[in-house]
Amino acid sequence: xxxxxxxxxxxxxxxxxxxxxxxxxxxxxxxxxxxxxxxxxxxxxxxxxxxxxxxxxxxxxxxxxxxxxxxxxxxxxxxxxxxxxxxxxxxxxxxxxxxxxxxxxxxxxxxxxxxxxxxxxxxxxxxxxxxxxxxxxxxxxxxxxxxxxxxxxxxxxxxxxxxxxxxxxxxxxxxxxxxxxxxxxxxxxxxxxxxxxxxxxxxxxxxxxxxxxxxxxxxxxxxxxxxxxxxxxxxxxxxxxxxxxxxxxxxxxxxxxxxxxxxxxxxxxxxxxxxxxxxxxxxxxxxxxxxxxxxxxxxxxxxxxxxxxxxxxxxxxxxxxxxxxxxxxxxxxxxxxxxxxxxxxxxxxxxxxxxxxxxxxxxxxxxxxxxxxxxxxxxxxxxxxxxxxxxxxxxxxxxxxxxxxxxxxxxxxxxxxxxxxxxxxxxxxxxxxxxxxxxxxxxxxxxxxxxxxxxxxxxxxxxxxxxxxxxxxxxxxxxxxxxxxxxxxxxxxxxxxxxxxxxxxxxxxxxxxxxxxxxxxxxxxxxxxxxxxxxxxxxxxxxxxxxxxxxxxxxxxxxxxxxxxxxxxxxxxxxxxxxxxxxxxxxxxxxxxxxxxxxxxxxxxxxx
Length: 608
Fold this sequence. Notes:
This protein starts with a helix and ends with a helix. Strand 8 and strand 9 form a beta hairpin. Strands 3, 4, 5, 6, 10 and 16 form a six-stranded mixed β-sheet that branches. Strands 1, 2, 7, 8 and 9 form a five-stranded antiparallel β-sheet that branches. The protein has a five-stranded antiparallel β-sheet with strand order 12-11-20-19-18, sandwiched between helices. The radius of gyration is 30 Å and the shape is elongated. It has 22 helices and 20 strands. The longest helix has 19 residues, at 4-22. The relative contact order is 0.11. By secondary structure, it is α+β, with helices and mostly antiparallel strands. The model is unreliable at 1-27 (pLDDT under 50). The chain folds into three domains: 4-48 and 199-217, no CATH class; 69-151; 304-606, Beta-lactamase, CATH 3.40.710.10.
């Protein structure tokens, strides 16, 4: 009969054997040592578990596994010819065309010679065939690998990749004229949270006799910490749906929960398969991505800052209300001599109507009242006043998280840009610039630039009447919550009453006569608050923008959409945004908008 200590000893020995098998040779040490009391010679060993075996998973907000570590087999072809490709095809069950195609796809970069090293990824059935006939192919080597596996094609810009598995992509990126993609590489949450995903090595230090039995330890063992799972804020179904709406078009879509700052969908277009940058047989596809004029590898919502267009009128109106430059009942004439207005509409007698019609002259005069606002003194320096008022405007606007990074958990977030009075002094080569030379700020054009994350957060701030949690992509690490900074509520310098004054105008935008009335969801009982934007572009078609949230009285989703060369915000960006809102809030699209949905998806697939 076996004693408990014998059983536990055998279990420990089995565990050590498994750990040894999982460890690479350089992670084990064998040093003979003699016990001074018994004279027995033992072997000191140091065993460490390979980090790929303990790396955490990445899951979406509904616990669907998006990224995991799994085993696969590769067939290493000989570096030197000749290679019997006909025989290889028979061995693997491939025809001659498939053999050539698979070898070409497995090259480290297009045009490389097979002598550069080719590894063919095999299925379980193909592995069995190779093992069965291995004696006839002594120059072929079958090897097992462990790699991160993507269970969905969606979310490439968010998920990123493990750097050690993307070396082939790095080498390709450095070879191409657009090598700047290498510098702007985006490892996503895999890179940002690498230390937490990887965990911490643990070391065992057993003393083993000649039979492999353990006799204590030669130094203190250290426990390893399992790599922690990441639970994302993304809804993978909503993410995949949003990607179908953007497809091959340049632009972005960011949807978040304004109550928490959790990002529900994060799309950078053109989209591509999440596994592309690390898959061993995707070198050709990677080359196409690198060479594409549409630059799909740039993480647009975080890295690119663009003029926001008319959606920025919301921010200017809030600041003007706060500083007393206008009131909700202020009206301005649609004076086309100041700035052109593309919408034919009645006079905007209130702020609500100014937003509803997106009247450019209205917001020209709103900002003019703010910049030229004079102090209650008799002797004034108008140049100094303009400088002080512009810098005060900038101070209030920056409280929206603009002109600075929001701290989102993705690498290389851009801060955007808001001009200062000193900037204009240098750009205009004089301190005596006038409002007329900077009026483009009033309609979100000119020198001002915002990222997609900032645009979505701006919508969330208005939905919350003046506060926000920093947008983030990970809602929990292991059994804990998000990173502490994502639970800190931040406030703007604008009173909540002034944000409330914006809501009627944003709701009116989506109603009859508003700039986006065709995108209303009133037929399914959802009131959307939104603002369209059409961004002038001197190098081609205008860019289309939209920000909004729903339901207007109890916001649960805020969305920002930006389509480069998309045309009008009302006809291009707004439909995408409201479809995502409806999908999130109802789970499906009403029959009334099905034809509309298919038309958008066809355009997305074609890239136009």
